[in-house]
Design goal:
This protein is of the alpha/beta class. The chain is 28% helix and 22% strand.
C-alpha cells in the first residue's frame, strides 16, 4: 500500500493532466468525510465508521470488470494524440472515478483481459489482448491491487499470464488469481492497510473452455468452496486479519444472480471465514446481500467496457464502498458497513448508424468521448466529463443509471442491513 501522500499526488497529477482544479477533481468525494461517509485523517483514507469508537477501521473501494474493447483502445489513442503523445492513454477515460477510488484506504480492481505489448497487436472477443497502458491508469486512479482470475485469464496461455502479471508488477499493482509459479501461487496477497493485514483472494468459475495445464496447476484459480476455504486458511496463517474474495461467476448480462451463484455464496458465507465477497463477470449490476453476517456483492457490473452492442445496462456499474471496523479490542470481530457509488460510461454516438448527426445545426451529442462518470458527483456539480454544462438528456440518463442501480442492489433485501448510497442524488 502507498501512504496517503503518494495517492494524493496521483490525484493531483491526474487533475493537472485534465486541466481541472483539484477542488473540482475531488468533487466526487463530498460524502467521504460528510454525512454519508467517514471523516478523513492525516494518515489517509476515511477513518471509518468506528473512528470515534476507538476500534481500528479502514475503507475499501471495489469495482467491476475492466475489459478493454477496441472502441476504448481507439479513444485512448485519440486522447494520447490530443495531449501530444503517441501510444494509448486511458487516464482521461477513467478520471471520473479517481476521487472515489483514491480516497479509499484500499482500492480493489478486477482486470479481466490479458495485457499485450505496448504497440500491439491487440485483439477483442473471444481472446482479449489489450494495451498494457491500462495498468498505469488503474494505478493512477488509486487502485492498489487487482484480481486476475476471469474467464479470459487463459486466453493467451502461460505467456499471457506472465506478461499480464509482469506489467502489473512494473506499475506497482498487487495481484492475485493467476500466477507465474507454484511459489507465487502459494504466497497470499496480503496488504498492510492502516496497520491491518488484509488479504485478497481471486477465483473464477471457468476459463471459456480453456483448461488449466496439468503441469501448471497454479496458473489460474478455479473456484470451489474447498479451494476458497484452503486459500483463506493459508492467508490467515500468513497473518491476514481480514480476507476479501474476488469472484468471477454467474451468467453474463443477467441482473439477477443465478441459482448456482446464490448457492455458492451461501456455502462460502457459512463454510469459510471470508469477510467480504465481491463479484464480477455479469457485465451488469447485480444485487448485494448480507448472508449470515457476510456481505456478498453478486456483481458490480462494468467498471469500464464498451460492448459492440451496448445494452444500456452494460454502461452502468457500481463501486462498492465498504467500511471495516473492529469491535471488542485487537482480537475483536470485524464489522462491515456497505455503501455504493453508481457509475456510468458515456459512449459517443455511432455516426455511421445515426443519420443526420453531422448535419449543420444538429443538436449537440450528449457524449463526445468515452468517459467513466460518477453519476451522483456529475449531477451534483452539473458538469459533464468534458467540463461543459450537463445537457438535459445527460441529466436524465445519469439519474436513470443511479436509480436503476440502486433498485437492483437493494432487490434482495439489503436495505434492512443498511445498504445505501455513499452519496445521494441532489434534489
Amino acid at each position: 500500500m502507498h501512504p496517503r501522500p503518494t495517492r494524493l499526488v496521483h490525484r493531483r497529477a491526474l487533475a493537472a493532466l485534465l486541466c481541472v482544479p483539484l477542488g473540482l477533481a475531488l468533487a466526487g468525494c463530498g460524502p467521504i468525510g460528510g454525512d454519508d461517509g467517514a471523516s478523513s485523517d492525516a494518515g489517509g483514507g476515511s477513518g471509518g465508521s468506528g473512528a470515534g469508537s476507538g476500534g481500528r477501521s479502514f475503507s475499501v473501494a471495489a469495482a467491476g470488470d475492466i475489459l478493454i474493447h477496441p472502441q476504448l483502445t481507439d479513444q485512448a489513442a485519440r486522447d494520447a494524440r490530443a495531449a501530444g503523445r503517441t501510444g494509448y492513454d486511458f487516464d482521461r477515460i477513467m478520471a471520473g472515478v479517481a476521487p472515489v477510488i483514491g480516497r479509499a484506504d484500499l482500492g480493489i480492481c478486477h482486470l479481466e483481459p490479458v495485457l499485450g505489448e505496448p504497440d500491439g497487436p491487440f485483439r477483442t472477443y473471444p481472446d482479449f489482448l489489450v494495451p498494457p497502458q491500462i495498468a498505469k491508469t488503474i494505478k493512477s486512479v488509486g487502485y492498489d491491487t487487482c484480481s486476475t482470475a476471469s474467464n479470459h485469464t487463459l486466453d493467451h496461455g502461460p505467456e499471457g499470464v506472465q506478461r499480464t502479471l509482469d506489467t502489473l508488477d512494473r506499475e506497482g499493482l498487487r495481484h492475485t488469481g493467476s500466477a507465474r509459479s507454484q511459489q507465487e501461487a502459494d504466497r497470499p496477497n496480503i496488504l498492510d492497510v492502516k496497520g491491518v493485514k488484509v488479504a485478497q483472494l481471486s477465483f473464477a468459475s471457468g476459463f471459456n473452455g480453456n483448461e488449466v495445464p496439468r503441469d501448471k496447476p497454479w496458473l489460474a484459480n478455479l473456484v470451489s468452496v474447498k479451494a476458497v476455504a484452503t486459500a483463506e486458511k493459508q492467508a490467515r496463517a500468513a497473518g491476514a486479519e481480514v480476507v476479501i474474495l474476488s469472484l468471477h461467476w454467474g451468467r453474463e448480462h443477467q441482473p439477477e444472480p443465478s441459482g448456482p451463484q446464490r448457492e455458492l455464496a451461501r456455502k462460502i458465507a457459512r463454510e469459510t471465514g471470508v469477510d467480504l465477497v465481491v463479484g464480477h463477470h455479469a457485465h451488469v449490476v447485480q444485487p448485494m446481500e448480507k448472508i449470515d453476517g457476510t456481505w456478498v456483492a453478486y456483481g458490480l457490473g462494468n467498471q469500464l467496457a464498451r460492448h459492440d452492442v451496448p445494452s444500456g445496462l452494460t454502461e452502468e456499474g457500481v463501486i462498492g464502498w465498504f467500511e471495516f471496523t473492529q469491535r471488542g479490542g485487537p482480537n475483536g470481530k470485524w464489522e462491515v458497513q456497505a455503501r455504493f457509488v453508481p457509475t456510468y460510461t458515456d459512449i459517443p454516438p455511432d455516426h455511421e448508424s445515426t443519420p443526420g448527426t453531422d448535419l449543420p445545426g444538429a443538436a449537440p451529442a450528449p457524449a463526445r468521448d468515452h468517459r467513466l462518470v460518477d453519476v451522483a458527483a456529475a449531477l451534483t456539480s452539473g458538469t459533464a466529463p468534458d467540463g461543459t454544462k450537463l445537457l438535459p438528456e445527460q441529466r436524465a440518463r445519469y439519474r436513470l443509471a443511479f436509480e436503476r442501480t440502486r433498485g437492483t442492489l437493494l432487490n434482495r433485501g439489503a436495505a434492512k442491513d443498511g445498504l445505501r448510497p455513499l452519496r445521494e442524488l441532489p434534489d
